[in-house]
Fold each of these.
Amino acid sequence: MIRLGVIGYGHRIHNVIDSCLRQVEPDLRVVGIVDPDQAGVRARLAPCDQQDARFYDSLDELVRSARPDALAIGTRCNLHAPYAIEAARYDLPLYLEKPVAISMAQAIALEEAFEGSRCPVVISFPLRVSPLCELARRYIQEGAVGEPVHIAALNYVPYGTVYWEKEYRNFEITQGLFVQKATHDLDYMSYLMGSPIVRVAAMATWGHVFGGTKAAGLACSACDEQETCLESPRNRRRNATSGTHLDHDCVFSVDAGSVETGTNEDCSSALVEYASGAHGIYTQVFYARRDAATRGATVSGYMGTVRFDWYTNELHRVRHHAPYSATERAGEGASHFGGDIELAYDFIGLIRGTATSRTPIEAGLRSIYACLAAKESAETGRFVDVRQVGAVNGPRT
Ligand SMILES: NC(=O)c1ccc[n+]([C@@H]2O[C@H](COP(=O)([O-])OP(=O)(O)OC[C@H]3O[C@@H](n4cnc5c(N)ncnc54)[C@H](O)[C@@H]3O)[C@@H](O)[C@H]2O)c1
């Protein structure tokens, strides 16, 4: 049996444990939990965990009393780094949610904590390990494009309204969508290009679509614009558009923050330079709906182009200097495009000592350093150098 300790037993980590880790290792039990919302956790816990799972006030108490074989951190973004810094002391395999930090101070402290640690980590980056991305990476490594010289990555998010509802609009916790969302994309882009991002120029557009002046705490059920508002449950249902069809927080409320206090962007883009000298672009759009959805990348070099999209589940290879092109389709229906189950295989393998992590702590750090540079660039209008993992005197803002 694998004994798992969980810090922050929320919706995401419950799904990872119940649908993915247990699919790979049915004999896994949650034996210890640190989470102030015991009632909420009890309502989520699987029947097989209800008896063994005990609550503890601290990670230290959990490790000493519950004797876990591994740890998982599933709190909201602002607590990932503080808890991971503590976890680094125990050398237990750690499943860590992304983003690994929400500020440069947190990220540097996290890197320092792991410098002397033997704690092996799986960062929750399902896109990098998804079969479609791995296939693209293999073709690129085999020379399908020659030297990769450019990457163009798009992320038109059809469920973007979640970032203006619930906790995702709490800027204190998330620090915006470069940190919250692009951390996945800048990670897999570097993986495909085989090189870290060293410089970023970014732009963002705030307050043109979501956010606004509606009252704090307003929900659709209490709003007198349900007939006309395109975001009301009845209109989302009627127009067959994405987002919850149940009563929800107003996406045009002051609760979403403002440019002055910090708020999520309607859309944002980054121009990125790689250590290899290649460059690329990344764009994320959060008001897209229905089949406007797209997420994937086009990597090119003199010899060819490799392009894939997780929504169509297709990969195209074009030979620039021969009359052949190929299209391949991936299987459908898997969580995070098949990436979540791959992460589960990695994590269980790490615990069993039979696998190494494909998303180690360095991947999380490299990505957050690039995301923080993008955020800073969008805020200041300047190119920003990206701090590199292992840099003694890298940028500290
Ligand atoms: N990797 C991915 O693809 C992916 C997908 C979805 C969400 N996420 C990330 O997962 C994280 C959690 O999201 P969620 O939707 O599950 O949130 P959630 O609110 O459901 O879960 C957070 C949990 O942390 C608990 N918590 C609050 N304060 C705590 C504290 N001081 N100590 C310990 N626990 C505490 C809460 O009670 C809650 O149970 C977010 O950071 C989000 O970005 C990642």
Amino acid sequence: MKRADRAAALVELLPRIYPDAHCELTFADPLQLLIATILSAQCTDKRVNMVTPALFRKYKTARDFAAAPQEELEREIQSTGFFRSKAKSIRSATADIAMKHGGEVPRTMPELIALRGVGRKTANVVLGNAFDQSEGIVVDTHVARLSQRLGLTKQTDPEKIERDLMKLIPREHWTMWSHWLIFHGRRCCTARSPDCAGCELQSLCPSAFQPPGARKI
Ligand code: SF4
């Protein structure tokens, strides 16, 4: 099967398997999603969702976050890991949002990636899920692994994977594509022990029963 045909079949099938796929970070506005996404680097969404309720009760605006003392914020986000650099990123990004963007999270890719700690992946999360704008495709570890196993890319660099996917997946599905693959990656096609026998994508998957990089545990 050609890549384009496989991608089209997956876009048909995945929403039927995961009709409830969604962003698993808890947020109420774009600023909260930006902060939660910065915290989610090298950390599970579940852990981030345990930390953010108290954080969002205490800090309500970009100015509030920017004014937080570094050490205090570090303590509050410590359990998400890499807390020193995450606290620096949050304080710096929110200071820029407060001073250069009138307190509102910017809505364009160039403005977002100019903020400290915000790369294309975080910007895509915010644009797609808080602003309903599809500028690109979020490529996290699940999306990268599954896109490779499903034979949609041979690239390993996230930005190159994203470029391959943007050619194959219709733009209106870019945001959901990531949610579908993340749901499938967490529930079935895990990194170490993919359940090919129970996988509903098996007939479309060129890696079925021999996924690259998988190790049975
Ligand atoms: S068949 Fe196996 S490798 Fe392919 S998507 Fe399903 S679980 Fe992953």
